[in-house]
Amino acid sequence: MVSRYITIATLSALTLLTGCDIQTTNTSKPTVVVSILPLKYFVEKIADSSLQVKVLVPPGSSPEMFEPTPQQMAELTQAKAYFSIGLLDFEKGMEQKLKDNAEFRYIDLSQGLELIKGESEHNHDHESHQGHNHAVDPHTWMSAANARIMAKSIAQSLTTLFPERESEFNANLNRLVAHIDSVDNEVRSILAGSGRKAFVIYHPALGYFSRDYGLTQLSVEHEGKSPSAKGVMELVERCRAEGITTILSQSQFDTHNSQTIANELGGTVVKVDPLQENWAESMIFIANAIASNVK
Q1: Which whole-number Å values give the CA distances from 86 to 46, 89, 126, in the listed order?
Q2: Is the predicted pLDDT of residue 21 greater than 60, yes or no?
Q3: What are 201-245's pLDDT values in tens digits?
Q4: Alpha carbons 293 and 73: distance in angstroms, whole number
Q5: What distance in Å separates the CA atoms of residue 245 and residue 268, rounded to the nearest whole number?
C-alpha cells in the first residue's frame, strides 16, 4: 500500500513538472504553426480554444539567426497550416518545400501589406526607399495598421480550413480588430503627450511602428553590424540634437554598445521585446519607452 501511494505521488509530481509537454503532445485539437510569438497572439485571439498553436522561433531567440531543427520541420508538415511572416530569411529557405505539400496550407501574411524597403532610418516619408535595391523590413507585425490586415488574413485562412467555424472566427476577428484599435489609440495618446519625434533602438525593428506614428527610428546596429567608434559618436551627437537620453535595446541582443551611448548621454538603456507573445503589451510598453515614461 505504501509503495502504491509513493507511485501515485511521484506520478503527480512528474505531471506538474511536465504538464506543458503532456498538454502539447496529447491534444486532440488540430494544430497550426506560426513563425514567431506575436503571430500566436493573433491566431489564438481568432481561433480561441479551438486550435493548438505552435511557434517555431522560441522565446529569447532572434528570427534573424534562427534555423528550424529537423524535428520542427517534421512536426510542421503534420500541422494543418503554417502562418508565415513571409519575409524572414529562414522562412524563404523552407517555403517551397511547404508549398509542395498538398495536404498543407502555407499562409504568407506579408500579402496585402505596404512593405518598407531598407532598415536603418524610417519615418513617415518611407516612399523614398521604394526605388532602391534594399532588403525589405520584415518586422511587419509592429504596426497596428498591418495587424488589422494580418488579422483579417488569418481569419479568412482559418475559415477556409474550418468552414464550420466561420461565424465564430468572424466574431473573434471583430473583437480583435476593436482591441487593435484600442491599442493604436493608446499608443497615439502616449506619443502625442511626449512630443517625441525620434528615438534610438539597437536593432531597427520598429520601422513600421515609426511609419504609423510619424517617428524617426535611429538604430545603433546597421545591416547586422555593430557601429564603429565614429558611428557611435555621430549617433551620440544626433541624440543630443534630438534631446534623446533613452536607448532601446531588444532582449535578444547584447547591450554593450547601447550602454556606451547611454553613458555618453547620461541616460539609460531600456529593454524592449518586439517578439514577446503579448503584442498589445509590447506596443504600449515601447510607446512608453519612447516617451521616456519607462526607466
Answers
A1: 20, 9, 20
A2: no
A3: 999 999 999 999 999 999 998 877 888 889 899 999 999 999 999
A4: 42
A5: 7
> Closest Cα partner for 64 from 175, 230, 205?
205
**CB 33: neighbour CB atoms within 10 A?**
26
Instruction: Kindly give, in sequence order, each residue whose CB lies less than 8 Å from that of residue 224, ignoring residues fewer than 6 positions away.
Output: 64
**Rg over CA atoms, the chain:** 21
Contact 184, 128 (CB under 8 A): no
Q: How far apart are CA 93 and CA 15, in angstroms?
A: 37
pLDDT digits (tens, 9 = 90+) for 137-165: 999 999 999 999 999 999 999 999 999 99
Q: Cα–Cα distance between 239 and 143 in angstroms, integer?
A: 24
Given the C-alpha cell 511557434, which residue does it identify?
55
CA distance 270 to 89: 27
Kindly write down the DSSP assignment for every residue of the chain, as one continuous string: -HHHHHHHHHHHHHHHHHHHHHHHHS--S-EEEESSHHHHHHHHHHHTTSSEEEESS-TT--GGG----HHHHHHHTTSSEEEE-S-SHHHHHHHHHHHT-TT-EEEETTTT--PPB-SS-B-S-GGGGTTS--PBP--TTS-HHHHHHHHHHHHHHHHHH-GGGHHHHHHHHHHHHHHHHHHHHHHHHHHHHHT--EEEESS---HHHHHHHT-EEEESSBTTBPPPHHHHHHHHHHHHHHT--EEEEETTS--HHHHHHHHHHT-EEEEE-TTSS-HHHHHHHHHHHHTT---
Domains of the chain: 26-109+116-121+137-182 (3.40.50.1980), 195-290 (3.40.50.1980)
pLDDT in tens, 275-286: 999 999 999 999
pTM, full prediction: 0.83
Pairing of strands 52-55, 216-219: unpaired
